[in-house]
Backbone:
């Protein structure tokens, strides 16, 4: 018999309390575990209550939206290139005095239009008496889609580096004093739809690579470039190119001058000569002909045993600086 049973085995005196078994308490380690569980439950309940307070109410209230992101800063290449371009031209009336600072899109930069608040997409400086050469630095403002420098006093050649402006859809350079040939590299302007090169002093032919490269072009105005010449590159027609008051549609004077030499030769013309045909470009692999910037500058027909008399029409090759006719008859 256990000690608990022994304590209740005897007679219980009258009036005494009923005999009960002593209460059994859990060990000390168990009590610690129970207290830890209770504390954990209390913390969990507090956390749930806090989350419920922050949850949208039944009225349909929601948390405020996050603030709109700030517009991106201007491209360093963009504003630096524009300031460089400014330094490359002449501005007698200080029209570009507003071109200061580092953000052409938020300040009063004359002629600048931006898209999205951060990138210049249009530059219009028409009829402001600006001069000098067309600035090469603009080739770094590749975000441009519209460039208008018409009606100024720019001179020199069309910059070949502008072929990097592949986003251009419209370019206006009319009524300046631009000279030289049009660059074949501009065939990379695949998005160009409209080009106005009228009333300058451009020469030579339209590059044969332009139609295929400028597949989007619907109008090219070359009117008034009196020395521009040669046939239209296929498949362009007068519906695409306006060329009034030019020599476009016929041979260039240099071509005429060179072909007059061929006509003056009374001996057999070599069958291995390439080119030397009407409606072709002398700078495109004519045997014996060298060119600089699309201009005929050299003619070497030496040691061919040609017979005949030099024609006066050779003088039409006005840029010729080297002529070698040695060992002919």
Residues:
């Amino acid at each position: 018999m256990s000690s608990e049973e022994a304590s209740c085995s005897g007679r219980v005196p009258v009036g005494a309390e009923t005999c009960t078994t002593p209460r059994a308490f859990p060990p000390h380690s168990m009590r610690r575990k129970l207290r830890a569980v209770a504390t954990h439950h209390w913390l969990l309940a507090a956390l749930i209550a806090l989350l419920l307070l922050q949850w949208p109410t039944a009225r349909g209230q929601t948390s405020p939206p996050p603030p709109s992101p700030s517009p991106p800063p201007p491209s360093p290449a963009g504003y630096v290139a524009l300031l460089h371009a400014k330094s490359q031209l002449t501005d007698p009336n200080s029209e570009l005095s507003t071109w200061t600072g580092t953000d052409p899109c938020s300040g009063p930069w004359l002629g600048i239009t931006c898209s999205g608040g951060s990138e210049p997409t249009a530059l219009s400086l028409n009829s402001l008496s600006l001069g000098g050469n067309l600035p090469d630095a603009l080739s770094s403002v590749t975000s441009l889609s519209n460039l208008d420098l018409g009606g100024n006093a720019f001179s020199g050649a069309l910059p070949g580096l502008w072929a990097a402006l592949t986003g251009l859809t419209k370019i206006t350079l009319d009524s300046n004093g631009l000279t030289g040939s049009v660059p074949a590299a501009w065939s990379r302007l695949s998005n160009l739809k409209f080009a106005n090169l009228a009333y300058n002093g451009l020469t030579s032919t339209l590059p044969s690579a332009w139609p295929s490269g400028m597949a989007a072009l619907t109008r090219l105005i070359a009117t008034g470039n009196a020395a521009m010449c040669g046939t239209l590159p296929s498949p362009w027609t007068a519906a695409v190119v306006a060329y009034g008051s030019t020599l476009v549609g016929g041979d260039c004077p240099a071509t005429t001058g060179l072909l007059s030499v061929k006509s003056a030769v009374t001996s057999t013309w070599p069958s291995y000569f390439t080119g030397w045909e009407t409606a072709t470009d002398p700078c495109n692999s004519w045997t014996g002909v060298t060119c600089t910037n699309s201009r005929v500058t050299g003619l070497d027909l030496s040691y061919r045993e040609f017979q005949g008399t030099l024609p006066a029409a050779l003088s039409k090759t006005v840029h010729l600086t080297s002529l070698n006719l040695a060992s002919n008859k």
